[in-house]
Backbone:
């Protein structure tokens, strides 16, 4: 099988073992490609593996041998499922590989924001503790998370993991989810209620027509003035101009974001340098062990397809 794997630099910094994939066939690796270069690279591929590269109708038409598309991701918005299905091409994703890493990053963002850890650490690095008159100094206010209400919007694998950690920290967990889970031990609330009641509101839902710009001027107006938003899901669920306005005016206390509507960040992104915004460059999923798990799962998906028993199929083929 001729396998073309692209977007290499988004997966590995030389620290990932691709041997499981190479046992499936002859693999040619490419980094991030332009659409035209991708068409040339994949022209004779039987299987195409992508992270963020767009697999559209034009690409599919240029790949007569293509039978399989695998994503190095849980999301597959970049793949034209209809066009793939019409050609009989199987599309598979990797669910749940990043649950623990993303959950960890949620609380890294939250605890840094509430504890002003970055500010105090930078202060010590500048020598300000050496010059202090007392054993402790407090130019930046910090907050306890204990006893606060933690809203989880979306109750899939990551949402469940985040809810458990928030619960363990002594926070009151409330959940808003599209489908009512049978085994949820936390209070289920409506979309408006979770905005209104949460001290911390963390998003773990997919980007759909229903969740696009879910965080907007109207829903922000429902929130407490000292509330904080966390988004490690998809940037498009936030109206960035509305959130930036709310942060800069003090309407809400803060936002911790690992995703934006456009990535890399655009030069005119309204959240750039917005007050009380902590932003990381989509790195919640990047621990080496997490990326290795992802690559191994992509290889397992392809091996299952080759054996005639495809798993994690997202287009019904």
Residues:
């Amino acid at each position: 099988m001729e396998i073309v794997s692209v977007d290499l630099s988004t997966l590995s910094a030389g620290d990932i073992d691709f041997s499981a994939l190479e046992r499936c066939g002859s693999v040619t690796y490419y980094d991030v490609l332009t659409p035209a270069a991708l068409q040339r690279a994949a022209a004779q591929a039987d299987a195409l593996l992508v992270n963020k590269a767009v697999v559209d109708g034009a690409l599919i038409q240029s790949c007569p041998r293509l039978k399989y598309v695998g994503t190095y991701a849980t999301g597959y918005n970049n793949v034209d499922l209809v066009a793939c299905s019409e050609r009989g091409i199987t599309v598979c994703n990797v669910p749940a590989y990043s649950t623990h890493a993303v959950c960890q990053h949620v609380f890294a963002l939250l605890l840094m924001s509430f504890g002003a850890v970055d500010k105090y650490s930078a202060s010590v690095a500048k020598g300000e503790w050496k010059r202090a008159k007392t054993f402790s100094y407090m130019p930046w206010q910090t907050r306890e998370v204990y006893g606060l209400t933690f809203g989880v919007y979306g109750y899939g694998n990551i949402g469940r993991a985040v809810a458990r950690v928030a619960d363990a920290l002594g926070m009151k967990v409330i959940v808003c989810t599209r489908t009512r889970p049978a085994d949820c031990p936390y209070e289920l609330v409506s979309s408006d209620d979770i905005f209104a009641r949460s001290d911390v509101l963390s998003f773990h839902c997919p980007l759909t027509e229903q969740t696009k710009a879910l965080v907007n001027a109207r829903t922000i107006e429902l929130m407490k003035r000292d509330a904080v938003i966390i988004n490690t899901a998809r940037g498009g669920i936030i109206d960035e101009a509305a959130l930036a306005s709310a942060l800069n005016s003090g309407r809400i206390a803060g936002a911790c974001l690992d995703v934006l509507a456009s990535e890399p960040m655009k030069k005119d992104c309204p959240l750039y340098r917005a007050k009380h915004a902590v932003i990381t460059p989509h790195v919640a999923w990047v621990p080496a062990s997490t990326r290795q798990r992802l690559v191994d799962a992509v290889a397992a998906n392809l091996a299952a397809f080759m054996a005639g028993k495809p798993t994690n199929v997202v287009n019904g083929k």
DSSP finds eleven helices and twelve strands in the chain.
